[in-house]
């Protein structure tokens, strides 16, 4: 149970397929494009691996085992696979290229390769969950590489202030769950993120938000801190999430040991 709760804190809000928080600045692209097919399926692959981690405490190189089944084309055809271990979608084939699992830190990398003779030819996507909560998601077209924003290929509504706040809401609620689980085991709360196992997900270029001091930990658009009061089982805490980039910069969220969440939006577009 402790292991499961620890990993729940890491993946926080990652189990809502296409309502995930915007993890990098960006503009939504045409949801019907070939690139979007690969981007959407790679996010689904990521979610399947996270679900495997929650259920089995490990990632897997077997995509069938984690339940990842990319959609076929409208006529039922699928891309040819380059070899063993690949799973075919419509214009892309997918494969997990590497995993590490406990007792080492849990990480994985996966690739999507566009099929020759299709509009996706020459397109390759790479996604990886690295140690320390770092996420990398990139697209290569003909040798030109760029990072993919987690929010690409989502509907325009995903770029509202409320949607961009979702990263902080989901992570701070995961932090609350982690603190409550830690209390059950240790009869106290903790402001030491390493001790309780809370690692918010960073941006898709592998970076995490800069923090003002060691009492904070960075996600992508938000930073997090826990303040404690009292001792032992009578302890209380207030966890804070603060947005530091994008139109929601300055927005502050707080949750206490009772689970009461308050959000103070920044003056301006998100007020």
Description of the structure:
This protein has 271 residues and is an alpha+beta fold. It is built from four helices and eleven strands; from the N terminus they run H-H-E-E-E-E-E-E-H-H-E-E-E-E-E. It has helices spanning 2-11, 34-56, 161-186, 193-196, and strands at residues 87-88, 92-100, 107-114, 123-129, 135-141, 144-147, 216-218, 222-229, 236-243, 252-256, 261-264. Strand 5 and strand 6 (144-147) form a beta hairpin. Helix 1 (2-11) runs antiparallel to helix 3 (161-186). It is globular and about 65 Å long.
Report the principal-axis shape: globular
| Average predicted local confidence, pLDDT | 84
Strand proportion, as a percent range, falls in 15-25%
The end-to-end span amounts to: 39 Å
| Sequence of strands across the biggest β-sheet | 1-2-3-4-5-6
């Amino acid at each position: 149970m402790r292991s499961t709760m620890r990993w729940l804190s890491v993946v926080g809000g990652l189990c809502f397929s296409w309502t995930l928080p915007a993890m990098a600045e960006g503009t939504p692209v045409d949801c019907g494009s070939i690139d979007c097919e690969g981007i959407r399926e790679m996010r689904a692959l990521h979610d399947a691996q996270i679900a495997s981690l929650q259920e089995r405490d490990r990632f897997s190189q077997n995509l069938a085992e984690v339940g990842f089944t990319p959609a076929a084309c409208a006529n039922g055809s699928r891309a040819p696979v380059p070899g063993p271990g690949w799973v075919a979608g419509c214009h892309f084939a997918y494969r997990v290229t590497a995993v590490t699992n406990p007792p080492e830190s849990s990480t994985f990398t996966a690739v999507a390769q566009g099929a020759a003779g299709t509009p996706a030819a020459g397109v390759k996507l790479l996604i990886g969950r690295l140690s320390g909560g770092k996420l990398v998601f990139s697209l290569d077209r003909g040798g030109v590489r760029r990072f993919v924003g987690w929010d690409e290929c989502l509907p325009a509504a995903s770029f509202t202030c409320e949607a961009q706040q979702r990263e902080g809401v989901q992570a701070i609620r995961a932090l609350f769950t982690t603190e409550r689980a830690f209390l059950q085991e240790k009869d106290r709360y903790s402001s030491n993120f390493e001790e309780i196992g809370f690692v918010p997900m960073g941006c898709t270029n592998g970076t995490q938000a800069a923090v003002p001091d060691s009492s904070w930990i960075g996600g992508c658009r938000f930073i997090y801190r826990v303040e404690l009061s009292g001792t032992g089982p009578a302890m209380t805490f207030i966890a804070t999430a603060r947005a530091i980039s994008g139109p929601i910069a300055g927005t502050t969220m707080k949750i206490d040991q009772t689970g009461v969440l308050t959000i103070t939006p920044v003056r301006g577009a998100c007020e």
